[in-house]
Amino acid sequence: MQITPRQFPAxxxxxxxxxxxxxxxxxxxxxxxxxxxxxxxxxxxxxQRTPVPSMPGVERLSLDxxxxxxxxxxxxxxxxxxxxxxxxxxxKTDLAEEAYNPNGLVQRSIKAFKDxxxxxxxxxxxALDPYTSHGQDGIIDEQGYVLNDRTVETLVxxxxxxxxxxxxxxxxSDMMDGRIGAIRQVxxxxxxxxxxxLSYAAKYASAYYGPFRDxxxxxxxxxxxxxxxxxxxxxNSDEALHEVAxxxxxxxxxxxxxxxxxxxxxxxxxxxxxxxxxxxxQVSGEYAMHMAAIEKGWLTEAAMMxxxxxxxxAGCDGILTYFGKRAAQLLNQ
Length: 333
Ligand code: PBG
Description:
With about 325 residues, this protein is an alpha/beta fold. The protein has helices spanning about 20-25, 65-75, 105-115, 150-165, 180-190, 210-215, 220, 240-250, 265-275, 285-295, 300-315, 325-330; strands at about 35-45, 50, 60, 80-85, 120-125, 170, 195-205, 255-260, 280, 320. The chain has a single domain (about 30-330), classed as Alpha-Beta Barrel (TIM Barrel), CATH 3.20.20.70. An eight-stranded parallel β-barrel has the order 1-4-5-6-7-8-9-10, surrounded by nine helices. α2 crosses α3 (about 105-115), α4 (about 150-165) runs parallel beside α5 (about 180-190) and α8 (about 240-250) packs across α9 (about 265-275). The structure holds ligand PBG. Ligand PBG binds next to α6.
């Protein structure tokens, strides 16, 4: 029996998908090296390389090796790196004084990067968790509650010490109230008018940060206590808009949504409501899941590239990703 269609479709969506040239013409989102920011872990010592077991391919490096890594990232066209310190036990106290030591590991690293690779933007983390004996992002009272205004005072000192060392972008990731305004005020007072603030405005109390806490060595100190009294509930979305509005009013230049992939609805709402530079942190747990599956041969690197394009498609302007160097190599091929 012959089947004759009664009607041919006027629009065939598959026409434009038929060839590479027309697929390229209608591609809506273009991931480029300019979108990739790479988090780096710095540790003390010389010629020290420590792999992070839960993050295959990621190593904590001593500053001499990390400067070389920064040169390679800049040569690949990566615009900026985000620096995270591994602080030894002696540097961890109840009041986190090491956070604002002008000769601390981060402050020395900023200077070394700016000397060696001045064109590479340096983003530094403003938060106390690497420096507290208990692993919380702030100073706690007897009950273990993180004290907001007392913590902000210390964050301001930390921020100023980073800016004075030459950091281009300060990135408060602590979720204290009022810290953006307090930091902005002191930067202006000190004439540091071009130091940018990237606020981790919508940062969730996420289970996806586990491998990062292994990498910086805060997991053991933190123990079972969580960060729910300051980081956001993953169930909330309107609250993220409220956070972003406050941080912009206080003087943030860029805002961040963190984590990435399970939070792309938040990215889209933030970008469409505010239209400001919006970054996404593809966090350690997202990286770990992809890399574990890739190591097992269950996924390929294409899945990681897909995740990055999808994060960008949600509307962000840049992605912090541990896959940044490899992604840049793949994009440059
Ligand atoms: C801490 C901080 C964290 C991350 C970046 N800064 C962990 C946390 O909030 O406990 C997580 C990054 C990642 O998981 O990749 N201020």
